[in-house]
Every structure is written in C-alpha cells, then in structure tokens.
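Pasting as-is:
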Amino acid sequence: MSQKLQFRLTVAFIGVAAGVVLVATTAFILETHYHFSIYQRQFPNTDSVQGLTYHFEQALIQAILWTALGAVFLAIVLSWLVARRITTPLVIMRKGAEAITKGNLQTRVPVHGKDELAELGQALNHLTEELERQEHLRRQMTSDVAHELRTPLTTLKSHMEAFEDGIWQPTPGRLRAVTDEIDRLTGLVGDMEQLTLLDSPEFELEQKKEDLSVIVDQTLTNMRATFDQKGIALKSESVGPVHAWVDRRRIAQVLVNLLSNCLKFTSKGGEVTVRTEQKGKEAILTVRDTGEGIPQEELQRVFERFYRVDRSRNRQSGGSGIGLTIVKKLVESHSGAIQIESKPGMGTCIYIHLPNQNNLQ
C-alpha cells in the first residue's frame, strides 16, 4: 500500500519544525543585532555590563515572541492546507456513500492522485460496481426464477382445468405428465437450495485424500442402467489410483451433474467417457461426450445461472440451467478449476483440475 499521504504529513511536520528553527534563528540574530546597535548608541564610550545584559535579555525575549508568532502562523497555514487536502476528498466520499445507501448505485467518486485517499476512493468505486453487479444479478435471477416457474405452473394449471371441465380424462399418461412437471419443479427448487447453500458462509467441505477412480467407478455403476436404456455407451478410463484432496460426496455430485448433462445432449449410439489421471500436484477428471456440442461464443456462459445454449430447447430436455453453475461452484470450493472445450456436432469435453493435497497445510 502506498505511503504517500503519510509521507506528505511527515514532510508537513518537518516543514513546521524547520520553519520554527529558521524563524527562531532569524529572529534571534535580528533582535540581537538591533539591541546591540541601540546599546552602542546609548553607551558609545563605556562598557556597561548592566546595559549589555538588559539589551541581551530584551533581544532574547523578543526573539522568542517572534518565534512563537511565526510558529503559530506556520502551524495554522500548514494545518489548513493539510486539513483541506484530507477533508475535501473525504467529504466527497461521504456524500457518495450516502448516495449509495439511498440506492443510487451509479454513484462514482472522482479519484485524483495515487495516495491512500485515492486508493480509498477507488475501493469505494469498486464496492459500488460490485453492489451494482450483485443487484443486476439479483434482478436477473428473480426474473429467471419467475420465468422457470411460470412454464410448469402454467402447464399444471391447464391440465387441472382440463380435468375439472371434463375436457380431458385423468388417464395414466396425462397424470404422468402432471407428475413430471411437479418433479421438475421439485428439482428446480432443490437446485436453487444447493446454490443458496454454496453461497452461504456456513457451507463446509469434508475433505480428505480420496481415490478419484473409485468415486468414478461407483458413480458410473449407479448411472449405467440409465445410459443403457437410452443406448449410450458409458466408459471409464483410469490408470491406477488417482488421489485428490476432496469431499467424496460433493465430487460425486459434480460427476452426476456432468453425466446428466451428457445424457440429455448425447443421441442414441453416442459415447460418454470419464477419465482420471494424476499430473504433478493435481488430479484431473475429464468427462467427454459425443453429443451436440456447444458453439464457441456460448462456452463462456454455460456456467451462468439459468443459461441454456439453445433457448428454443424445451425445458424438459434442457434441464433447469443450474446444474453447471453448481458444478463450477463445487469445483472452485475445492480450490480446483474447470475448463470446457466443445465444437457443434463433435461433442463436449470438460476438464476438472483438483489438488491432490491439502492446500491449507
């Protein structure tokens, strides 16, 4: 952190001290010269010790008085300049902070120089920008949640009205459609609860050294029947044990979310491969499919909440749009990183890098 303001204050105090010394020296020399001149005029032919002592005392007293007056003057001037330099930007920042508390998140304070006050102004501006971004995300999320809930609720309402009016008979197929909509609503609420938990300060991982290949094998065993039912090959590639410092349950959740995405967007006859490998101080988990793929311009947005690559895709096949957001947050909570590569028509590959030791130790 810059110490320019502290340096300026130090220089100001040194300036006052130097000014006092200079005034004192000048005043003493001038007063001494003045009184000795008077003494020589009063006693031109004598060596009066009493007169000399008197004039010396007067010179000393007046030098002290002039020094005090000069010191007070210097202190007032420099204090005013320093106070103005400090208080002016502080007043501006206070007014800016008051505007922010009233909800005006477009407020920005002017920043001049590179001292601590300038850094404080920059910090306030950055805080305002972050608050503005969070407010935008909050509004966007509210809009997205309303949009996501509206479709299944509208569907349920239309089904119920059709049953009540006798237009439809409650056949097993139609009742199953109602159940599916309820399941999707339940899943959406569950995903939103997961996001809230991940954003909470109370969220904690139960990390320990785990073999990723074992977690992968168990997860693939649990999901293989679903893939077989759709005619998609599910494969695992691991070379020996691959250790990572992870929360076993959360990494399994990450893998389930990724495989669920692969299942939705990979056609019959396709293939999904999960690979684990050790590389230096990290373990790498790779999930590759031969599905639809993602356009290059969409890759940076796939981890956003409620974002779908194809807006025309129905919600039944497209999911809630929260799964990859949860994946990213869980990976980052492990001090890991996630990357995605994809080309339309050629499938998607997701790389997850995880530490193989406790980074807190």
